[in-house]
């Protein structure tokens, strides 16, 4: 091997004149560990993908949309009217399309928010896809048949539930007492009007009962003023979730709420009637939430580029740091310095030592 080294076009420094530094080895070890960490994170992003969220102008033409609701209202069903009125002044009586069941009014245990707006939490992609199980409301049943008359149960409430179609323009779902707001042969006695209510479900689009919405599980009541009116303003945003071929087309909405006492209103303004009013409008944008995955070729190119950049940056950082230490504190502080008597050459040794 010694004879072959004599023909080396780029001869290396003799090993007896080289000082090996442990500091350089530590920096190399740290660099390699960091490279392994980068590679591990890149492999995780390749197999797990990443979530891409973007807005688009909603270019789909829809003539109608679906409203899903499940509510308890503290007014007997025979005195309730449910209408939809949109900005084209088109009115639709939807009481017959919904299921109205007499019930003793109560606020279910576990109702998350009473007389307050609950905190709105945007669900993640996996949660939506896991809960996107379409369903339908059950058929109407007469709850009075389940109880005997002598039990004395007061059926002072109404269970309103079902899905209805409406024109896809801004409008309002109106739940009022008969004889108030619209002409009717029946006029509700004032003592029977109480619009305390519980919203178990309120959503737009296809009915997914397991997806949580801002109004789900909320309740409102006013014992001192039972004829209080409640107004909800909702802004609907079409939202599409996609992952691994699965697609869920639904709607999110933001909501604001206020209430007023219809008996205390001033006659100067427009006439207001007791009731529950759910207004809706549609945003011109839609949200697309996709699970995106890189191709294998893109992954390899990305990984090689990142690792090469890290190695190049680490090498220059090592050189600059070593140069700074050498100029500021002397050669003993150099990252390449290592005091080792075994690395001395023949001329440096003491001739009187064996």
TrEMBL record:
GO terms for biological process: endoplasmic reticulum to Golgi vesicle-mediated transport; retrograde vesicle-mediated transport, Golgi to endoplasmic reticulum. The keyword Transferase does not apply. It is a multi-pass membrane protein. The keyword Transmembrane applies. Residues 4-92 form the Endoplasmic reticulum vesicle transporter N-terminal domain. Signal peptide: none annotated. Keywords: Endoplasmic reticulum, ER-Golgi transport, Golgi apparatus, Membrane, Transmembrane, Transmembrane helix, Transport. Pfam families: COPIIcoated_ERV, ERGIC_N. The chain crosses the membrane at residues 29-51, 296-318. GO terms for cellular component: COPII-coated ER to Golgi transport vesicle; endoplasmic reticulum membrane; endoplasmic reticulum-Golgi intermediate compartment membrane; Golgi membrane. Its main location: endoplasmic reticulum. It comes from the Eukaryota. Belongs to the ERGIC family. This is Endoplasmic reticulum-Golgi intermediate compartment protein. It comes from Zygosaccharomyces bailii (strain CLIB 213 / ATCC 58445 / CBS 680 / BCRC 21525 / NBRC 1098 / NCYC 1416 / NRRL Y-2227).
């Amino acid at each position: 091997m010694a004879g072959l080294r004599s023909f080396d076009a780029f001869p290396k420094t003799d090993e007896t004149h080289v000082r090996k530094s442990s500091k350089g080895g530590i920096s190399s070890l740290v660099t390699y560990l960091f490279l392994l960490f980068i590679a591990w994170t890149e492999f995780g992003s390749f197999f797990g993908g990443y979530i891409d969220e973007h807005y688009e102008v909603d270019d789909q033409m829809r003539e109608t949309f679906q409203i899903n609701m499940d509510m308890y209202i503290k007014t007997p069903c025979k005195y309730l009217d449910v209408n939809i009125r949109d900005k084209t002044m088109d009115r639709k009586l939807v009481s017959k399309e919904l299921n109205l069941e007499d019930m003793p009014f109560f606020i279910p245990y576990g109702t998350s928010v009473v007389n307050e707006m609950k905190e709105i939490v945007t669900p993640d992609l996996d949660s939506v896809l896991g809960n996107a199980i379409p369903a339908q409301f059950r058929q109407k049943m007469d709850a009075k048949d389940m109880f005997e008359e002598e039990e004395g149960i007061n059926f002072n409430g109404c269970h309103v539930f079902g899905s209805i179609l409406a024109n896809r323009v801004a409008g309002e779902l109106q739940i009022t007492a008969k004889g108030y707001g619209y002409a009717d042969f029946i006029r509700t006695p004032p003592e029977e009007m109480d619009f305390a209510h519980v919203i178990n479900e309120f959503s737009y689009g296809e009915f997914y009962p397991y997806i949580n919405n801002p109004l789900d599980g909320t309740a409102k009541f006013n014992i001192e003023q039972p004829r209080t009116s409640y107004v909800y303003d909702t802004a609907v945003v079409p939202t599409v979730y996609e992952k691994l071929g699965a697609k869920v087309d639904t709607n999110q909405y933001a909501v604001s709420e206020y209430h007023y006492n219809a008996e205390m209103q001033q006659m100067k303004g427009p006439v207001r009637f007791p009731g529950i009013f759910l207004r809706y409008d549609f945003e011109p944008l839609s949200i697309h939430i996709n699970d995106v995955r890189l191709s294998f070729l893109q992954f390899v190119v990305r990984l090689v580029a990142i690792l090469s950049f890290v190695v190049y940056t680490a090498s220059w950082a090592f050189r600059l740091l070593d140069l700074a230490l050498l100029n500021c504190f002397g050669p003993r502080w150099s990252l390449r310095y290592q005091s080792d008597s075994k690395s001395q050459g023949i001329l440096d040794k003491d001739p009187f030592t064996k």
